[in-house]
Amino acid sequence: MWSATVGRASLRKVTVALPGTWKTDSLTCSLLTPLTASSAPTQGHIRVTAAHPVFESRPWTQQSQGCGRQGDFIQMGADLLRASNNESFTQASRLLLAEWAKFRWGVFDERGHTNDPLYPPTFRDPNTHQWAATSCADGAVKGNICDPSQPGCSFTPEPYTNGHLSSSMLAFPELRSVRLFCNDKTHNRVAPTKHNALCGGRSAWEIIHQTTDFVGGRNRARNGSKRLDPIIRYVQQSSPRYVFVIEDTAIMNLQRRWEFLRKAMRRVVVYDVPDHSHVGVITFNTVAQTVAPISYIESEDSDFRQRVGSSLPRNPSAVPESQKCLLCGLQEAERLVSADSKGSDGATIIFITTGSGHIPQRQMDEIIRISQHRNLKIEVVLYPLSEWRGSAETSHGLETLMEATRGSLFTVMDEGVGNDSKVKMMVALMDTLLAAVQHNTSPSAPGTTVLVHNAAYPGGISSMSAGTFALDDSLGPNARFSVYYYDLNHVGNAIQLTAPSGQKITSVNVQEEDGDVNMIFINLEKAERGLWTYSVENRADSHQGLYVQITAKRNSSSGLVVRLWTSAGSRPINSSDPSSPVVVYVEVKAGVAPIMDAKVVAKLQRLGTNNTGSNYEPYNLDLWDNGIGDPDITKGDGIYSRYLPPLAGKPGRYLLSANVDYNSGMAVVAKDPPSRHHRLKSHYYQQGHDSWSSDQSCCGSSLPHVHSRRASPFFRQVTLGVLEVMSPLPFMDVTPPSRILDLRVDVNDTIHQITLRWTAPGDDWDVGKAYKYEAVVAPLWKEARAFQGDRLTGLPQPLSAGALHTTNLHFPRYEELWYVSVRAVDEAGNVGGLGNIAALWVPRPPTTYEITTRTQPALTTSGNYTMPSELGSGRAVGLSELQLDDVAVILGSVGGFLLVVAALVTYCYWHTNRRRKQQYEKDVEKVAASGGSSVMVKSGSLSGEEGGGGSHESLDSIAKDTQESVRDVRPLSPVQSWGATTLLQEHERRLSVHSSAPEDPLPAYQGDAPLHAPYPDVTVTDNRPVSSTGGQGPVFIHCVHDEGPCHCAAPGPDYTSYAAAWDDPLTGHLLSRTRTSAPPIQPIPQQAHQQQADRKRRTVTQV
Questions:
Q1: Mean pLDDT across the stretch 444-473?
Q2: Per-residue confidence (pLDDT) for residue 1019, from 0 to 100
Q3: Torsion region of 947: left, alpha or beta (phi above 0 gives left; psi -120 to 50 gives alpha)
Q4: Which of 253, 888, 970, 996 has its CA 20 to 30 A from that of 438?
Q5: Going by DSSP bridges, is the β-strand pair 73-77/46-49 parallel, antiparallel, or unpaired?
Q6: Greater pLDDT, 663 or 677
Q7: In the structure, how many helices (H) and strands (E) does the chain have?
């Protein structure tokens, strides 16, 4: 450490806490100095435990908070301390130093990890565009370089060829030459490491300089290296000691406050305090006195439980509350602890006071001094706290005390009704005292009381109150089912329990009563493991209720462990300051193995009543172990976290608790491989070099759990305490969305498609839904970091927080290194912080043909819509950049489209012919059935109505076919029809052939017909010529259609064909002309021929 910090830091003092069960006699433990007992259960910074299912005995750091924040602890296996030679100890110390830097100074890993989508083992170097090791080093790192997109790609530095490297300890602590952390000169800001993502590209040495160890020039560098050996102090943990210091003033005599306090004290001492504990009770007003000296609680059946639990006087004193002396109570507690034969190094002082009244600053300073000198931890319970319509003051003057002693604050609100009090206040006080005891007991210590299930059922309606709970293997063989009441008559006779096997427990004989704590309980001896159900007959009044609790004792240290805390610690929360957000954390593990996919719900219950006198509605917040980086650091580590949402309303107090269960069978527990081999020798010493692989180093974006098992059913409820909100929310929204720290890029080389993936942030941190996204693509990392470059438009609409976004980007720039960055913006315009920067590289397709295509890519979501994306700069892309697969896809698409079109055309042609043929056959049958030579065409059949067109064509074709069959003219097929020009020509030809002498009377033009009148009924009559007996011209007679062919006269020389000018629209009616005979055809003069043509133009109907 001295060398790595350039002569600025070293360990000065180390305390080693040995388990209380260890024997320390000279035969089993050789120590130079006698052991000093320590009563406070110590949660060490470095914990030696059983082997971890992923890291085995290698040291690793659990980091739940962000950059620059101290970690939770360092864990390592006992095998690390059993090394057989100095070389192995040297390697172990180097690994431990790297983890100490993470724990103490809040820096992170600076190397890549196999199969990690965010922190891959290799990345593309921005200078050479070649693959390089993901690391921070002061030179080139030699090793097996590979493409991280290929399965199984991992990087291990060569042990013999990297002697030129001196940094970084956070990347390659196993290399003997590495001894420094990366500074501003050697730091690689572009490498996709966890440290760069969470610390914004700043070097590890820059982060270390900003911690409390070095800020402001503290611990300056020194040249000498003398007296660097730390002072090692060995202590042995003894049983925990609890001293309850209770306010005894007249205020406690109101309503049922003192009665409820006596019942709660009895419950916690008789039933909840762990075995082998030391408990004492003190009361104070103007002076303090001991009512129960520290007594050793050996077991559940110890008589001292009853004596200490019932030690409070029956009535409080008459001393006014304003005259209480808090310092007097602490001084008496110090004297009581000092008189204990087990020593005075550590104890837990639980103050129970109303919290009102002013505490002089001189008294507060003395309280803090005594607490720190005697290593006393102060837990404060405010009972009862009166708050009328949310207007109570939030300051009680005890904030500095809790912060100085690392204690917690608990609050029990006043639930008084007239001269009475609700039983809810008594149950809340019982839960608070249990939580205060649990805070100072190791959560994994055997014999610790565990709250499995807690439920409240309001009264007012006679009903059966039912619920479910689960007992798991981490609990002892016995459990207690308890029902708390205000009056014994509020609990009916019907109490039923159903075991997992189906066995029912309904007998009244198994029920026990403890009137001193208002409790009916059933002791479940050797209770079955699994899901239980219960039902209780509820007869409580409308302003009271029943409260059901299931408690048990821990069986061993390897079972289920649940722990709840926040990033704020004991300090008040300022809701109007977005620079200091609060994160809620819950740890769920089975021993040292994390439990994944559990259901973890944090519950925020505002204390007091609203303007209507009712209780506030609780706020439930689902916690996630997703490893997105903000706020959850690592996925699969058993740490579930979430930002505390903005708490609306006036300043107040919120009770924070958490409910944890097995998520209906979805929760899994990480476990060891089927056969774990002892690998100490190969791991710590192999020809002078360590052989740890990168897969075992901690930690990437997630823990690589290879083996897991289904978790058995379990339920847990834990309570942290009260969060004090000291300021209301501002009028305007000032809370931005959280950062996007899991942006990743996947490139499909086949279709040149880039897929962007990230987890949606919220509107206020990770709660709600953001308003929009902003994204840039830049050729330089610095530009992307400054959010400069080409803006991407058409980004998808934000989803609810926690949802996964998948967006496709068609990027036509090949063999160029670009960087992508995305951030969120809420509706008020608050911009989320910049997250990780993802590199973008698209390889050039291996083809040579050239065409020109569009220059702007398109950004599409994987959902149901497509949106364009614009980039500020671009270039033409040729066919040479298309791959053979692309050409095949294009040709296949075009060919498929042509086949579809051909099939449609063929079907339409066949269907039309078939319909015309069917219609023709029907029309032929109609004509044949008419029996005459004339075809009557009605005007309605020629109209534009449905079906009219088809009938007209068919009938017209039949008439024309019959007419043309007797002439030497090409006949029309049944499916053919005449156009307007052909129809007029045929009409003129018929008039010319059938016309008589010029002196024949002409039909009159009906000028009164409408301009666009429908076609009239037309009778088409065929006249066939026959030779006259007198040698004159042919005489026209009616031709019958079913007769044989007859020869008609040819047109005369005066016939004039149809002129093109006649195509102009004409109006009028086509009049039928019926003739019985005709004189011989005579030549007509040209003038008469012109008049006939004019007459024919007038008698033609517009078609």
A1: 90
A2: 39
A3: left
A4: 253
A5: parallel
A6: 663
A7: 15, 49
